[in-house]
Amino acid sequence: xxxxxxxGLALTATSQAASATVREPAEPRPSVSPSLTAAxxxxxMSDVLPASPPITLTDPVTDGxxxxxxxxxxxxxxxxxxxADESDLRMFVVYIESFDGTQxxxxxxxxxxxxxxxxxxxxxxxxxxxxQFGLSADSNVALTDAQxxxxxxxxxAAVEDERWSAAATDAADAVRATGTTTTxxxxxxxLVVAGVLVLAALGYVSWRFVVPRLRPRLAGLARxxxxxxxxxxxxxxxxxxxxxxxxxxxxxxGIDDALKTCExxxxxxxxxxxxDATRDFELILARAxxxxxxxxxxxxxxxxxxENGAGEQDTAAQDPERxxxxxxxxxxxxxxxxxxxxxxxxxxxxxxxxxxxxxxLADVVDRAPEVAGRVERARATLDELAETYPTEAxxxxxxxxxxxxxxxxxxxxAVAAGRSALEGGQKAxxxxxxxxxxxxxxxxxxxxxxxxxxxxxxxxxxxRLDKAVASLTQDVASARSVEGDFRVTLARTAAQASLKHVAxxxxxxxxxxxxxxxxxxxxxxxxxxxPTRDTTEVKARASALLRDTLGxxxxxxxxxxxxxxxxxxxxxxxxxxxxxxxxxxxxGARALQPTDPTAALGEAQRASLLVLEAxxxxxxxxxxxxxxxxxxxxxxxxxxxxxxxxxxxxxxxxLDPHLVRSRRRASTAxxxxxxxxxxxxxxxxxxxxxxxxxxxxWPANVR
Length: 703
Fold this sequence. Notes:
By secondary structure, this protein is mainly alpha-helical. Helix content is 69%, strand content 3%. Helix 4 links the parallel strand 2 (90-96) and strand 3.
């Protein structure tokens, strides 16, 4: 069989040589014909390149700097045509005056994506005034890093000498020298047939003789634990402890944003395709979520140690241990991102977004009026609640109608831009806008649902408060019969103070805060009275109090999680860490509930305190960003692409169709501050850029 395959290959090669013809030189053209206006381009990419927006390329040579004369332009075109004729790769060249401080590769990557370039398209961007250049190559291009390096060396030598036409011709010749030649379909078919025959023969031999001997060893390999992903301590050794701490915090923010966006995308896919079609992706997301929870737990432990003053007496001894923990956090974040990235293509294939882009855009248009109608109802609900409850009780939802309204406006703009991109044949750009519109509409619905849920929960809390007050009053009466126990006396006095406080603030007060105060007093009094009660009664009272506490904690977690998810463009690592720890403690309380309700109650109470702290920190982060935005808007000299105030940017939704193309940049980047709007993946380089552009305007306490 192998011999027959090789014979077939030889005959195919002979036929290829006999039928070879000389092709006319092909002038390279973009893979997709773009038609975005300059305003739309600037809007879509403003968060990535605030100073120098990318441009859409339609010609092989774009000379915006007047760097070439007619003869040089013809020379560059001829070099590009030779490359297209002799290989599968195509190159485009653009000359501008300056990158305006933007990284050359960033500028080239963004322009290439905005122009709809494909896997085999290269872009060389040259800034004549800066004497800099950037080379953009798709991460799946058929070139090694070494080959890309030789292409960059060829272009760099010419740019250094200000030989602008030679920069393009030398780069094109360097690409041709890589030997990436065009292969005819007939030769490909012959190779496939021969390969199949050879593989079939090898497969039979392996199955018959090799596999039986390797099975024990393969089983042992399968049981091994894979090494942790992410950078090694040696790779991060050059960073100071403060820099490493900042990087770990940024990584947590970035992967947390990625998870939230993946959850939203998965929800859309589940609604479209059903639970069976998305089950595998739910398992992948659960695996990544588990890694991120572990990373947050490590971060919480480090924060707790710092708050308790650990290591003050022997900082030098503690630094290696803290560094090791921070490196572990980075490794877990990178591992979770790799888990998501590995299924990005499969998830996109499942949803078939490019084929369904018109349908997705039309669905947003159909649903938007219904969501818009809910905005005014939500405002009316909040106005009614404000007449009964204090501002603090509504703090997490008071701005929801305005944010939802901004998201609806952004969704409509994204639909218009997506349809324009479809008319221009830019399917990838249209998909990005469709995704952004879907996610914006989904966030608006979540915000409006949160208002309704808060109204319901406040009403239920008000009715439960009377029952809680009656229960604590009875416990105080029971405690009076216990004399001579200082602990009981102290707990009884604190309980009486709590009852008095709730009675004074009952009208117009926060029933949730009242419930928490009463529950804490009752738990303290129960603990003091436990020695005077039998075990059954102690366990029954702990179980009852645990149920009430977990119900309240679940609502607090829901409210805070919604606030963070819908304002994730502004929420820092500390608030997210506290929220993640509260979730962990609540889960631990549920696990202990059947066997040890007393211990579970302690976990639930700690979760309640942490989620309140998380909510306070999250609100402070969001308020600081908005305050910075207001200050920037009042400053006439402020950058037009300044801080975020609402809508998609505040919600962490970026219109960004697979922004990063450079393989080497992707492999060396680290997780940053957000999810890039792509598929079921981590979006690490995009996130890093978001931190560098959007959050540059944040106040220091938020950063």
